[in-house]
Protein backbone atom coordinates (compact mmCIF):
# COMPACT_ATOMS: atom_id res chain seq x y z
CA UNK A 1 0.00 0.00 0.00
CA UNK A 2 1.43 3.38 -0.98
CA UNK A 3 1.68 6.09 1.64
CA UNK A 4 -0.89 8.89 1.54
CA UNK A 5 0.42 12.16 0.16
CA UNK A 6 1.59 14.65 2.79
CA UNK A 7 -0.56 17.61 3.72
CA UNK A 8 1.82 19.96 1.90
CA UNK A 9 1.43 17.92 -1.29
CA UNK A 10 -2.35 17.88 -0.90
CA UNK A 11 -2.46 21.65 -0.46
CA UNK A 12 -0.18 22.19 -3.47
CA UNK A 13 -2.30 19.86 -5.62
CA UNK A 14 -5.58 21.48 -4.60
CA UNK A 15 -4.10 24.94 -5.08
CA UNK A 16 -3.01 23.97 -8.59
CA UNK A 17 -6.28 22.34 -9.60
CA UNK A 18 -8.29 25.19 -8.09
CA UNK A 19 -6.26 27.63 -10.15
CA UNK A 20 -7.10 25.62 -13.26
CA UNK A 21 -10.79 25.35 -12.39
CA UNK A 22 -11.24 29.05 -11.63
CA UNK A 23 -9.16 30.18 -14.61
CA UNK A 24 -11.18 28.01 -17.03
CA UNK A 25 -14.63 28.91 -15.73
CA UNK A 26 -15.18 32.06 -13.67
CA UNK A 27 -12.48 34.05 -15.44
CA UNK A 28 -12.99 33.11 -19.10
CA UNK A 29 -15.97 35.38 -19.92
CA UNK A 30 -13.86 38.50 -19.36
CA UNK A 31 -11.62 37.46 -22.26
CA UNK A 32 -13.87 35.38 -24.52
CA UNK A 33 -17.25 37.11 -24.23
CA UNK A 34 -16.50 39.69 -26.93
CA UNK A 35 -15.43 37.28 -29.71
CA UNK A 36 -18.22 34.85 -28.82
CA UNK A 37 -20.84 37.62 -28.91
CA UNK A 38 -19.51 38.82 -32.28
CA UNK A 39 -19.70 35.36 -33.84
CA UNK A 40 -23.18 34.61 -32.46
CA UNK A 41 -24.50 38.07 -33.30
CA UNK A 42 -25.57 38.91 -29.76
CA UNK A 43 -24.47 41.48 -27.18
CA UNK A 44 -21.75 40.90 -24.61
CA UNK A 45 -24.45 41.37 -21.97
CA UNK A 46 -26.19 38.27 -23.33
CA UNK A 47 -23.05 36.19 -22.90
CA UNK A 48 -22.60 37.45 -19.35
CA UNK A 49 -26.27 36.73 -18.70
CA UNK A 50 -25.71 33.10 -19.65
CA UNK A 51 -22.72 33.04 -17.30
CA UNK A 52 -24.82 34.49 -14.47
CA UNK A 53 -27.45 31.80 -15.03
CA UNK A 54 -24.73 29.17 -14.68
CA UNK A 55 -23.69 30.71 -11.35
CA UNK A 56 -27.28 30.50 -10.13
CA UNK A 57 -27.34 26.82 -11.08
CA UNK A 58 -24.12 26.37 -9.11
CA UNK A 59 -25.80 27.90 -6.04
CA UNK A 60 -28.71 25.48 -6.37
CA UNK A 61 -26.48 22.39 -6.74
CA UNK A 62 -23.91 23.32 -4.08
CA UNK A 63 -25.58 21.46 -1.16
CA UNK A 64 -25.84 18.23 -3.17
CA UNK A 65 -22.18 18.44 -4.18
CA UNK A 66 -21.19 19.07 -0.57
CA UNK A 67 -23.24 16.11 0.64
CA UNK A 68 -21.48 13.87 -1.87
CA UNK A 69 -18.10 14.99 -0.50
CA UNK A 70 -19.26 14.34 3.07
CA UNK A 71 -20.24 10.80 2.12
CA UNK A 72 -17.45 9.82 -0.30
CA UNK A 73 -14.62 12.27 0.30
CA UNK A 74 -13.51 14.98 -2.07
CA UNK A 75 -11.02 13.07 -4.19
CA UNK A 76 -13.48 11.39 -6.50
CA UNK A 77 -15.89 14.33 -6.63
CA UNK A 78 -13.11 16.71 -7.65
CA UNK A 79 -11.82 14.24 -10.24
CA UNK A 80 -15.29 13.92 -11.75
CA UNK A 81 -15.55 17.72 -11.77
CA UNK A 82 -12.53 17.83 -14.11
CA UNK A 83 -14.38 15.56 -16.55
CA UNK A 84 -17.53 17.70 -16.30
CA UNK A 85 -15.48 20.88 -16.82
CA UNK A 86 -13.86 19.27 -19.86
CA UNK A 87 -17.25 18.25 -21.27
CA UNK A 88 -18.71 21.73 -20.81
CA UNK A 89 -15.71 23.49 -22.30
CA UNK A 90 -15.51 21.07 -25.23
CA UNK A 91 -19.20 21.54 -25.99
CA UNK A 92 -18.72 25.30 -25.73
CA UNK A 93 -15.86 25.08 -28.21
CA UNK A 94 -17.94 23.27 -30.83
CA UNK A 95 -21.29 24.97 -30.16
CA UNK A 96 -22.92 26.04 -33.44
CA UNK A 97 -25.02 28.76 -31.84
CA UNK A 98 -26.44 30.27 -28.68
CA UNK A 99 -28.74 27.36 -27.61
CA UNK A 100 -25.91 24.82 -27.49
CA UNK A 101 -23.67 27.45 -25.89
CA UNK A 102 -26.27 27.85 -23.11
CA UNK A 103 -26.31 24.07 -22.62
CA UNK A 104 -22.52 24.12 -22.34
CA UNK A 105 -22.70 26.72 -19.59
CA UNK A 106 -25.34 24.65 -17.79
CA UNK A 107 -22.81 21.81 -17.72
CA UNK A 108 -20.22 24.30 -16.48
CA UNK A 109 -22.61 25.26 -13.67
CA UNK A 110 -22.65 21.63 -12.54
CA UNK A 111 -18.85 21.50 -12.73
CA UNK A 112 -18.43 24.69 -10.71
CA UNK A 113 -20.68 23.30 -7.96
CA UNK A 114 -18.45 20.21 -7.79
CA UNK A 115 -15.05 21.74 -8.33
CA UNK A 116 -14.50 25.27 -6.97
CA UNK A 117 -13.52 26.53 -3.53
CA UNK A 118 -16.39 25.12 -1.47
CA UNK A 119 -15.68 21.61 -2.75
CA UNK A 120 -11.96 22.00 -2.01
CA UNK A 121 -12.70 23.36 1.48
CA UNK A 122 -15.02 20.41 2.18
CA UNK A 123 -12.34 18.02 0.96
CA UNK A 124 -9.84 19.47 3.44
CA UNK A 125 -12.39 19.42 6.28
CA UNK A 126 -13.03 15.75 5.59
CA UNK A 127 -9.31 14.98 5.58
CA UNK A 128 -8.05 17.09 8.48
CA UNK A 129 -11.10 18.01 10.56
CA UNK A 130 -10.72 21.06 12.77
CA UNK A 131 -7.04 21.29 11.80
CA UNK A 132 -7.90 22.22 8.20
CA UNK A 133 -7.71 26.00 8.67
CA UNK A 134 -4.11 26.51 7.54
CA UNK A 135 -4.64 24.14 4.61
CA UNK A 136 -7.67 26.15 3.49
CA UNK A 137 -5.58 29.31 3.70
CA UNK A 138 -2.84 27.60 1.71
CA UNK A 139 -4.99 26.74 -1.29
CA UNK A 140 -6.46 30.24 -1.40
CA UNK A 141 -2.92 31.62 -1.47
CA UNK A 142 -2.11 29.57 -4.56
CA UNK A 143 -5.45 29.89 -6.34
CA UNK A 144 -5.50 33.62 -5.60
CA UNK A 145 -3.43 33.90 -8.78
CA UNK A 146 -6.11 32.25 -10.94
CA UNK A 147 -6.96 35.48 -12.74
CA UNK A 148 -3.27 36.35 -13.05
CA UNK A 149 -2.72 33.03 -14.83
CA UNK A 150 -6.10 32.60 -16.48
CA UNK A 151 -6.62 35.91 -18.23
CA UNK A 152 -3.28 35.93 -20.07
CA UNK A 153 -3.60 32.22 -20.88
CA UNK A 154 -7.11 32.66 -22.32
CA UNK A 155 -5.97 35.72 -24.27
CA UNK A 156 -2.97 33.84 -25.68
CA UNK A 157 -5.03 30.81 -26.71
CA UNK A 158 -7.72 33.05 -28.22
CA UNK A 159 -5.10 34.95 -30.22
CA UNK A 160 -3.52 31.73 -31.52
CA UNK A 161 -6.53 29.44 -31.94
CA UNK A 162 -9.63 31.63 -31.65
CA UNK A 163 -12.15 31.49 -28.82
CA UNK A 164 -13.21 27.95 -29.73
CA UNK A 165 -9.62 26.76 -29.57
CA UNK A 166 -9.24 28.45 -26.19
CA UNK A 167 -12.22 26.51 -24.82
CA UNK A 168 -10.83 23.25 -26.21
CA UNK A 169 -7.40 24.06 -24.78
CA UNK A 170 -8.82 24.52 -21.30
CA UNK A 171 -10.82 21.28 -21.71
CA UNK A 172 -7.62 19.41 -22.55
CA UNK A 173 -5.86 20.81 -19.48
CA UNK A 174 -8.63 19.44 -17.25
CA UNK A 175 -8.08 15.96 -18.70
CA UNK A 176 -4.29 15.87 -18.81
CA UNK A 177 -3.52 17.94 -15.69
CA UNK A 178 -6.48 18.44 -13.36
CA UNK A 179 -7.89 14.90 -13.50
CA UNK A 180 -4.70 12.98 -12.66
CA UNK A 181 -3.69 15.46 -9.96
CA UNK A 182 -7.04 15.29 -8.17
CA UNK A 183 -7.48 11.54 -8.59
CA UNK A 184 -3.96 10.35 -7.81
CA UNK A 185 -2.52 12.87 -5.34
CA UNK A 186 -5.44 13.68 -3.02
CA UNK A 187 -5.72 11.18 -0.13
CA UNK A 188 -8.81 9.08 0.37
CA UNK A 189 -10.98 10.60 3.08
CA UNK A 190 -11.72 8.65 6.28
CA UNK A 191 -15.27 7.32 6.75
CA UNK A 192 -17.83 10.02 7.64
CA UNK A 193 -18.15 8.87 11.25
CA UNK A 194 -14.40 9.19 11.75
CA UNK A 195 -14.33 12.59 10.05
CA UNK A 196 -16.91 13.85 12.49
CA UNK A 197 -15.29 12.42 15.58
CA UNK A 198 -13.41 15.62 16.30
CA UNK A 199 -16.46 17.83 16.13
CA UNK A 200 -17.95 19.38 19.23
CA UNK A 201 -20.10 16.84 20.98
CA UNK A 202 -23.62 16.85 22.34
CA UNK A 203 -25.94 19.68 21.45
CA UNK A 204 -23.10 21.68 19.92
CA UNK A 205 -22.77 19.08 17.15
CA UNK A 206 -26.12 20.12 15.69
CA UNK A 207 -25.90 23.24 13.50
CA UNK A 208 -27.83 26.14 14.95
CA UNK A 209 -30.37 27.58 12.56
CA UNK A 210 -29.86 31.20 13.63
CA UNK A 211 -26.09 30.97 13.33
CA UNK A 212 -26.40 29.35 9.91
CA UNK A 213 -28.72 32.14 8.79
CA UNK A 214 -26.37 34.82 10.11
CA UNK A 215 -23.39 33.18 8.45
CA UNK A 216 -25.26 32.86 5.15
CA UNK A 217 -26.08 36.58 5.36
CA UNK A 218 -22.45 37.51 6.04
CA UNK A 219 -21.21 35.44 3.10
CA UNK A 220 -23.94 36.78 0.81
CA UNK A 221 -23.10 40.42 1.57
CA UNK A 222 -19.40 39.71 1.09
CA UNK A 223 -20.11 37.90 -2.17
CA UNK A 224 -22.26 40.75 -3.46
CA UNK A 225 -19.67 43.42 -2.69
CA UNK A 226 -16.78 41.38 -4.10
CA UNK A 227 -18.61 40.63 -7.35
CA UNK A 228 -19.95 44.18 -7.67
CA UNK A 229 -16.52 45.76 -7.26
CA UNK A 230 -14.86 43.06 -9.32
CA UNK A 231 -17.04 43.99 -12.27
CA UNK A 232 -17.19 47.78 -11.80
CA UNK A 233 -14.05 48.81 -9.91
CA UNK A 234 -12.46 50.97 -12.65
CA UNK A 235 -15.79 52.66 -13.36
CA UNK A 236 -16.42 53.40 -9.69
CA UNK A 237 -12.95 54.90 -9.29
CA UNK A 238 -13.48 57.09 -12.35
CA UNK A 239 -16.85 58.17 -10.98
CA UNK A 240 -15.00 59.21 -7.81
CA UNK A 241 -12.81 61.49 -9.92
CA UNK A 242 -9.85 59.32 -10.94
CA UNK A 243 -8.62 59.40 -14.52
CA UNK A 244 -8.96 56.24 -16.61
CA UNK A 245 -5.23 55.55 -16.32
CA UNK A 246 -5.24 56.10 -12.56
CA UNK A 247 -8.29 53.88 -12.14
CA UNK A 248 -6.62 51.03 -14.02
CA UNK A 249 -3.39 51.47 -12.06
CA UNK A 250 -5.23 51.45 -8.74
CA UNK A 251 -7.37 48.50 -9.80
CA UNK A 252 -4.21 46.50 -10.51
CA UNK A 253 -3.51 46.57 -6.77
CA UNK A 254 -6.57 44.43 -6.02
CA UNK A 255 -4.89 41.07 -6.60
CA UNK A 256 -1.72 41.85 -4.59
CA UNK A 257 -3.85 43.22 -1.74
CA UNK A 258 -5.91 40.03 -1.61
CA UNK A 259 -2.87 37.76 -1.65
CA UNK A 260 -1.05 39.94 0.89
CA UNK A 261 -3.98 39.66 3.31
CA UNK A 262 -4.01 35.89 2.88
CA UNK A 263 -0.32 35.76 3.71
CA UNK A 264 -1.08 37.80 6.83
CA UNK A 265 -3.83 35.33 7.73
CA UNK A 266 -1.47 32.39 7.16
CA UNK A 267 1.20 33.93 9.38
CA UNK A 268 0.28 36.55 11.95
CA UNK A 269 -3.44 35.71 12.30
CA UNK A 270 -3.21 31.92 12.16
CA UNK A 271 -3.57 31.68 15.97
CA UNK A 272 -6.47 34.14 16.06
CA UNK A 273 -10.04 32.86 16.03
CA UNK A 274 -11.55 32.76 12.52
CA UNK A 275 -14.42 34.80 13.94
CA UNK A 276 -12.04 37.63 14.87
CA UNK A 277 -10.42 37.43 11.42
CA UNK A 278 -13.87 37.61 9.84
CA UNK A 279 -14.76 40.73 11.84
CA UNK A 280 -11.54 42.44 10.77
CA UNK A 281 -12.20 41.48 7.15
CA UNK A 282 -15.83 42.64 7.22
CA UNK A 283 -14.83 46.02 8.65
CA UNK A 284 -12.35 46.65 5.83
CA UNK A 285 -14.80 47.50 3.04
CA UNK A 286 -16.84 50.11 5.00
CA UNK A 287 -13.57 51.77 6.04
CA UNK A 288 -12.42 51.75 2.40
CA UNK A 289 -15.68 53.37 1.24
CA UNK A 290 -15.38 56.20 3.76
CA UNK A 291 -11.76 56.78 2.70
CA UNK A 292 -12.68 57.01 -0.99
CA UNK A 293 -15.84 59.09 -0.68
CA UNK A 294 -14.20 61.47 1.80
CA UNK A 295 -10.87 61.79 0.02
CA UNK A 296 -11.89 61.41 -3.62
CA UNK A 297 -9.57 60.43 -6.46
CA UNK A 298 -6.28 60.71 -4.50
CA UNK A 299 -7.53 57.91 -2.23
CA UNK A 300 -8.29 55.46 -5.08
CA UNK A 301 -5.26 53.25 -4.46
CA UNK A 302 -5.85 53.24 -0.69
CA UNK A 303 -9.47 52.24 -1.28
CA UNK A 304 -8.41 49.29 -3.46
CA UNK A 305 -5.78 48.12 -0.98
CA UNK A 306 -8.16 48.15 1.99
CA UNK A 307 -11.07 46.64 0.08
CA UNK A 308 -8.82 44.01 -1.51
CA UNK A 309 -7.29 43.01 1.82
CA UNK A 310 -10.72 42.53 3.37
CA UNK A 311 -11.95 40.58 0.36
CA UNK A 312 -8.89 38.34 0.44
CA UNK A 313 -9.45 37.49 4.09
CA UNK A 314 -13.18 36.91 3.57
CA UNK A 315 -12.40 34.26 0.97
CA UNK A 316 -10.57 32.32 3.69
CA UNK A 317 -13.34 33.03 6.19
CA UNK A 318 -15.79 31.38 3.80
CA UNK A 319 -14.00 28.11 4.48
CA UNK A 320 -12.69 28.49 8.03
CA UNK A 321 -15.59 30.15 9.85
CA UNK A 322 -18.14 27.36 9.21
CA UNK A 323 -15.48 24.93 10.47
CA UNK A 324 -15.01 26.95 13.67
CA UNK A 325 -18.75 27.42 14.23
CA UNK A 326 -20.01 23.92 13.51
CA UNK A 327 -17.06 21.52 13.29
CA UNK A 328 -16.13 19.20 10.40
CA UNK A 329 -19.03 16.73 10.57
CA UNK A 330 -21.40 17.38 7.67
CA UNK A 331 -19.24 20.29 6.56
CA UNK A 332 -19.73 19.81 2.82
CA UNK A 333 -23.53 19.86 2.78
CA UNK A 334 -23.71 22.68 5.32
CA UNK A 335 -21.17 24.66 3.30
CA UNK A 336 -23.33 24.26 0.21
CA UNK A 337 -26.36 25.55 2.12
CA UNK A 338 -24.75 28.60 3.75
CA UNK A 339 -22.90 29.66 0.59
CA UNK A 340 -25.87 29.29 -1.78
CA UNK A 341 -27.08 32.88 -1.11
CA UNK A 342 -23.52 34.13 -1.67
CA UNK A 343 -23.33 32.39 -5.03
CA UNK A 344 -26.68 33.88 -6.03
CA UNK A 345 -25.57 37.34 -4.89
CA UNK A 346 -22.38 37.00 -6.92
CA UNK A 347 -24.43 36.13 -9.98
CA UNK A 348 -26.76 39.12 -9.65
CA UNK A 349 -24.36 41.76 -8.30
CA UNK A 350 -22.63 42.87 -11.53
CA UNK A 351 -25.94 43.75 -13.20
CA UNK A 352 -27.69 45.25 -10.16
CA UNK A 353 -24.73 47.28 -8.93
CA UNK A 354 -24.05 48.43 -12.48
CA UNK A 355 -27.49 50.05 -12.59
CA UNK A 356 -26.71 51.90 -9.36
CA UNK A 357 -23.34 53.10 -10.65
CA UNK A 358 -24.98 54.37 -13.83
CA UNK A 359 -27.59 56.26 -11.78
CA UNK A 360 -25.57 57.51 -8.79
CA UNK A 361 -21.88 57.16 -9.66
CA UNK A 362 -19.53 56.53 -6.75
CA UNK A 363 -22.39 57.16 -4.30
CA UNK A 364 -23.55 53.63 -5.14
CA UNK A 365 -20.85 52.51 -2.72
CA UNK A 366 -23.09 53.50 0.17
CA UNK A 367 -25.03 50.30 -0.56
CA UNK A 368 -21.97 48.08 -0.11
CA UNK A 369 -20.98 50.20 2.90
CA UNK A 370 -24.32 49.45 4.55
CA UNK A 371 -24.10 45.76 3.68
CA UNK A 372 -20.60 45.61 5.17
CA UNK A 373 -21.76 47.19 8.44
CA UNK A 374 -24.70 44.79 8.60
CA UNK A 375 -22.35 41.84 8.07
CA UNK A 376 -20.05 43.13 10.80
CA UNK A 377 -23.00 43.36 13.17
CA UNK A 378 -24.02 39.79 12.34
CA UNK A 379 -20.49 38.58 13.07
CA UNK A 380 -20.67 40.09 16.56
CA UNK A 381 -23.85 38.08 17.18
CA UNK A 382 -22.19 34.84 16.14
CA UNK A 383 -20.29 32.82 18.70
CA UNK A 384 -17.70 30.21 17.75
CA UNK A 385 -18.03 26.77 19.29
CA UNK A 386 -15.47 25.72 21.90
TrEMBL record:
Transmembrane segments: 47-65, 77-98, 104-128, 135-155, 161-181, 213-233, 239-259, 280-306, 364-382
Ranges where the Major facilitator superfamily (MFS) profile domain occurs: 10-386
Protein name: MFS transporter
Species name: Roseomonas nitratireducens
Keywords for the protein's UniProt record, in alphabetical order: Membrane, Transmembrane, Transmembrane helix
SUPFAM superfamilies assigned: MFS general substrate transporter (SSF103473)
Pfam family, one: MFS_1
InterPro entries the UniProt entry points to: MFS, MFS_dom, MFS_trans_sf
Amino acid sequence: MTAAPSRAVTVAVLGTTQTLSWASSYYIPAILAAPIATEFGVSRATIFGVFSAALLLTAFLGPAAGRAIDQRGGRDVLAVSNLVFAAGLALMGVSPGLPVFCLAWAIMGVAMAMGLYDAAFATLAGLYGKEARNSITGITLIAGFASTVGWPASALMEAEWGWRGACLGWAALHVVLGLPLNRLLIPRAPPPAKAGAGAAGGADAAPRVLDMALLAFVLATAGFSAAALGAHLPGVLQAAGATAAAAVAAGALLGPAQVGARILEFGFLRKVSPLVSARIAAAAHPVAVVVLLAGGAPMAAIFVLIHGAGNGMLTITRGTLPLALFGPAGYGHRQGVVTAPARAAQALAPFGFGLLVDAYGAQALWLTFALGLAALGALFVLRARA
